[in-house]
Amino acid sequence: MEDCIFCQIINKKISAEIVYDNDRVIAFKDVNPQAPVHILIIPKTHIPTLNDLLPEQTELVGELIQVSKELAKAECIDQNGYRVGFNCNKDAGQTVYHIHLHLLGGRAFSWPPG
Ligand code: DGP
């Protein structure tokens, strides 16, 4: 989608610190990190919110989670722990309408989140 900032990162029209890239998935550092490690893992297919996820895209979301696990290991946060999560729509604080899995680590987090 032309006006989607994450599609522009996928298409290399906007630069980002990319840490993972394959035919279906790309991951890059969050521009406004909330933890020492804060990476966004996104599908290359434009899906605005989790509400728009189709049953046939289940495997794609599974791949995002697999990539988050690999990146957690690469960032050496897998043993201490990390958090992954999708924000969906305004009450969850979603600001970019292209689904993205947040990978956060490098510090302890409270629960429940604010
Ligand atoms: P969310 O609130 O769940 O929609 O998270 C969107 C995240 O995207 C937020 O943590 C900041 C990040 N972000 C927004 N624009 C850009 C950008 O242009 N580049 C990068 N690297 N991250 C961005």
Q: How many separate helices?
A: 2
How many strands in all? 5
Distance N to C terminus: 31 Å
- SS-based structural class? alpha+beta
Mean pLDDT: 97
Order of helices and strands: HEEEHEE
Short description:
This protein is an alpha+beta fold and 114 residues long.
Q: What does the model show?
A:
This protein is an alpha+beta fold and 114 residues long. The chain contains two helices and five strands; from the N terminus they run αβββαββ. The chain has helices at 5-10, 58-74, and strands at 18-21, 25-29, 37-43, 82-85, 101-105. The protein has a five-stranded antiparallel β-sheet, covered by helices on one side. It starts with a helix and ends in a 9-residue tail after the last strand. The mean pLDDT is 97. Residues 5, 14, 16, 28-32, 40, 87, 93-96 line the site of 2'-deoxyguanosine-5'-monophosphate.
Lay out the secondary structure.
Elements: H1 5-10, E1 18-21, E2 25-29, E3 37-43, H2 58-74, E4 82-85, E5 101-105
Antiparallel strand pairs: 1-2, 2-3, 3-5, 4-5
The structure holds 2'-deoxyguanosine-5'-monophosphate.
Which terms summarize this structure?
114 residues; alpha+beta; 5-stranded antiparallel sheet; 2 helices; 5 strands; 22% strand; binds 2'-deoxyguanosine-5'-monophosphate
